[in-house]
Structure formats: structure tokens, C-alpha cells
Design brief:
Layout: E1 8-13, E2 18-23, H1 33-46, E3 63-66, E4 81-86, E5 96-101, H2 105-111, E6 116-120, E7 127-132, E8 135-140, H3 149-160, E9 171-173, E10 176-178, E11 183-186, H4 189-192, E12 200-202, E13 206-208, H5 213-219, E14 222-228, H6 238-251, H7 295-305, H8 326-335, E15 339-340, E16 345-346, H9 358-370, H10 375-378, H11 382-388, H12 392-397, H13 417-425, H14 436-440, H15 448-456, H16 475-480, H17 486-503, H18 522-532, H19 538-558, E17 586-590, E18 593-597, H20 606-620, H21 631-636, H22 640-648
Parallel strand pairs: 1-6, 7-14, 15-16
Antiparallel strand pairs: 1-2, 3-4, 3-6, 4-5, 7-8, 9-10, 11-12, 11-14, 12-13, 17-18
Helix pairs in contact: 1-19, 6-18, 7-9, 13-17, 17-19, 17-20
Amino acid sequence: MTGGYTGKILRINLTTKAISTIDTAKYEEFGGGYGMGTAIFWDLAVAPGEWDLKDAFDPRNVIPLMTGPLAATGVPGAGRTSVCGLSPETFPTCEFWRGNFGGRFGTTLKLAGWDGVVVEGKADRPVWINIINDQVKIEDAKELWGLDTWETQTRIASMVGGKTRFGEEWQEVGNAYTTARPQVVCIGPVGEAKSRLAALISGSGISARIGGHAAVFGSKNLKAISVTGTGAVKMSDPKGILEARLHQMQSGSFSPGRAGAASCMPCLRSDRRRSNYYGGETMCACQGWLNGKDSDRGAEALIKYGLSSWSAHFEGFSKPLTDTGLGYYLRSLYEQGLLGPGKQIDSAPLPMDQWGELSFRLALLDAIARRVGIGDALAEGCCRAAQKWGRLETDKENGTLRLPSWGATSHWTMPWVDWAYAYILGAGDQTWHGMMSPVGTPRAGMTLEQSLEKLSKKTIPYTDDIFMFNYAWKGEEAWKTGVYSPNKAKQVAWSRHFTGFWNESMGFCEMFLPELSDESPEIEMTYYKAVTGKKDSFADTMRVGQKIWTLERAIRVMHGRSRQTEDFFPYMYKPGASGMAIYGGVPIYENGKWRSDTAPDMYLDRKGVDDFKSHFYALEGWDKEHGWPTRKTLEDFGLKRIADTLGSKGKLGA
């Protein structure tokens, strides 16, 4: 077996209670993590053809939680866990979506001897999965159901035997010893209520908060997965990994951390800043949820209930506010006099007069978790709530619903148009800042054009095209080399292929290697080769990333995706769509000159977006009419079986 892989994937059917293994080698062509999870989803959920892939709460929905080959090898920032499956959060359809989370779960799963765990079916009562090395049990979760995420982890730790803080005491687990606590990913009361805004929580508050897959756990009566691992992972060149780590630590390409027991494992940056087992996520997990004196207590409540802070944004990043979620929508309706005590939309049991207080957030969490009053509608997310209230089309048109597409809360969609396009194409929150700083801030001693030329050398195979980074959005240049051009299609495609392989399948945290710097992607390649022993070039890995992206597309096509469904919410086509630009703004080429611009007045043109889709589909080998992959494209990737299935359903690109 190639270095970095354990060789087996755990498969658990909650309906039949069958526990089996999948040979990792069968899926190694997809890299790891999300790539393998996507292929497994196809084989177990799509290929059998037993259902229409419409309802995320159908027991036939398959949820793979997968690690990459670099996890548990000492490669810093590469221990993330990928989660994918049909998402209950997306609107108007349940889309194939992905999320991921850091912490220690993925590393510990590898140390237990597993490259991932795949969950299917539905238990007839609440259960949790207990993994101790190669011993796997489906346990009764009756006493866990109703507990918050911190209580759940504490209770499971007491059952498994992990009662101490990290490193303080050796404990006997099975026939081995460890100083580590069991690593648990679980749902809170919000997930139990099958709220489409639920987040999977692990440790101090690390979360998979995109896609609502915690609600799928709830629908399967699955409270938690706990793992204890005492093994090791074989590597091709352990010395090479140590040398790469030392080089990276000395290069200044990372921020030295505030390491503690809540830190991701392994990491040289340590964004989790508290050293206790609990204590919350200090990065984005609770960003925009509650500011002010009670922000920590608000964050803790959010984590314990298991609500996605991203979907439940209250405060955004920009003015005018474009990074929006549940809080923005509630406030807008309240200010319009449509929502409140005794109003057209009754706000009970929410204390609207305490809007900015902790008491309001706690009341909201309780209402969603118990689905009482307005909480029942809000548990379904903004778009489904608006639909229930008869306001969907009105609020889309007037901009009150500011969700770029698929009912997903936005993240840097404008003026970072490459992020915006990722939304309509189905990538969700693309979770990669890799081009923001390089294109926004010229390198020291360089002009903007020279800096972009240097960056373009790294974007293999689309090298030496600096117009990939042109964000011109008005006039002829927007169509010629700007945001509606074939050049912009290259940038979007490249970022999708890169993140699909390196961030989602290799498990690299994009905040650890946040940009295409002087070290990246060379440092990733160094680690990859040292662990796996493979001789792949960077271009080879990008080809795998495109293969994963193409398989994703095939899954989405099978559940109804087409060119006609890929569109932005109306506000993106109107003045006021653009938000705050950081890192100096975006580069714009007009009248023969480059400049940096924050582009606060940017908005999109419908025909321009339609033209972009034609360019993008052509670049990816998808047909122009539907945006469906062609047989040639699929077979060039070795995906003939996928082409055959699409063809049998009349969904193969012409």
C-alpha cells in the first residue's frame, strides 16, 4: 500500500447494523478525503439507482467522513476531516455538498487504522459509534440524546476511558495504552431536531458547519462517532517530512501559534487558542454570531447547541452588508414591520427588544432546537422559512434574501467574483483564500503587473495568463479579459481543482497555507512525496483535482443540476451587491493599465454570467446546452462507468 494510507475504510449500515470494510486501494485514484468520499458516494448512493437523490433525510443518503494520506504523519496543517453527502441546507434542492473540520478527529481515526468511516441507513433508535482501533460497536445513545455537544463528549469520554487532559496520564484502552482522550464528532439539540442549520461539532467547537450534515446525523438517529487510536501510519520518507517541517518553520511562511490542547493536530499555527478541552473556536466558527461583552458565552452556547454560525450570521463583514445569514434576514423583516410580536410573522418566543443581547441568542437557539413558535420555520433556514411565509419571491427580488445561490450564506462573493462563481457551480463556501492576498497586494519591490506575472507561473496548467486575475466588470474589457471572459473561467477552474485535491482530499488547512506564496505549492508537493512516495508532478495532482470536480458534477447532474438551474439570487445583478475588499482590493485591467480597486460598486450582468458559464463548461469538457460532462471528458479521466450511468439516464453531455 502507498505510504500514508491505512488500507481500509470503515463502512457502517445503521439499518442492518452491518459493520464492514472497504479496501482503500479501490479509491486511491481519487487521492483521499473528499475525493474518495465523492467516489464512495457515487458507488453506494448513486450507482445502485434505488432512489431519486432528492431528500437528504432519506436513509439511503450516504455520509463519508474521510481523512487524507497526510493525516497522522506529522505533516502540519494536514489533518482535516472531509464530510460529504446530500445537503439538507441547500435550496431549492438538496445538493451534493461538502464540508470539513480540523481538530484531532481525522488524525486519531488514522491512528485507529482507518482512512475514513462511511455511514448509511438509519438506526431504529438513538445510537453512537464507538471505534477503538479495529474494534467497532454501535452503542445505545439513549442517555446521550438531548445532551449538548460538550456534555456528549464528556459522557462518551467517561464511557470509553478518556477522563484526563491530554498528556497527563497513561490510560489502558483495549490492549494498548494512550495519553489521549477519545476524539468525538457529534450533534447537539439543533441536529437532533433535524434543523437544516445544524453543525457537526468536535472538541472545543471545531465544526463542519457548511451543508447541514449534522441534520443528516439526526435523521439517522446518530448522535456521535467516537474514535480512539493507538497505532501509527507508515510513511515513505519520514526524514523528508522532518526536513520539510524544519524548512517551513524557518521560512517565515506561517504564523507561530498559541498552541494548546485545543489545537488542531498536527499544526504549527494553532488557531485554537485555549488550552482547555472546551472553550470554543476562536477563528470563524462564531464570527458574526454575537459581538460585545457576552461574545464568549454566546459562542459557547452556539457550539453546545450545535448550530452553524455561518448559516446563522448576525453581523457581517461589510457595509453594505453582503455576508448575510439568518440574523440579517430576521432584522430586515423586523425593520420592515413584517416580523415581531403579533405581526404578520409572529416572532414568539423571541424577545425582539433584546436583539443585541445574549438573551436573544439563547432564546433563538432554544426555539430552533425545540422547533417552537417561529423556531420551527427558522430551523429550515432562511429560504424555506420565506417560502412558508409566502415571501420567497418578494424577498429575493427586493434583496431582503441576500444569499448568492442555493440558499447558502455568502463568504467574500464580491468583488471576489471567482468565489461568487463557485457558489452557482455548487462548491458552496469554497474555503480558499489562496489568491486574495497575491492578487490584491503586489509583492515587495514589484509592480502589480509583475506580481501577477509571478503568480501566473504557479497556476499550472493555465500558466502565463495574467488576465485570469482581471476583475474588470464593466464595458468591453469585462467580456474580453475580465469577469465574463475565458480568462476568468481558467481562474475559477484552477481554484476548484487545487482545493479539490490539496485542501479537500489531502486535508491541508487553507488557513495554514493560505495563499500561493513563495513556498506554495512546492511545500505541499514536498510533503506529499515524502509521505506517499509517489512521483507525481504538480500537474498530475491538479489533474486528479479536475477528475474529482468532474465526478462531483456527475453526481449533481444525476439529482437534477443543469445550466438552467445555475443562477444567482437577484440582488447579485443589482447595485449594492459588492462588499468589502481586503488585501488592497482586486486587480483590474482597463485602458491598457492595471490598478488595484476595492470595487465597492460592482454588480453582475446576467448576460455576462451566462457567457461565463459557456466559457467554463467548454474549458471543463461539459456541454454548452446543459453543463453536463461529455462521454469523452469522463472516459479521459477513466470514468467510463460514470458515463454509462449518465447515458442510461439521458444526462450525458452532447
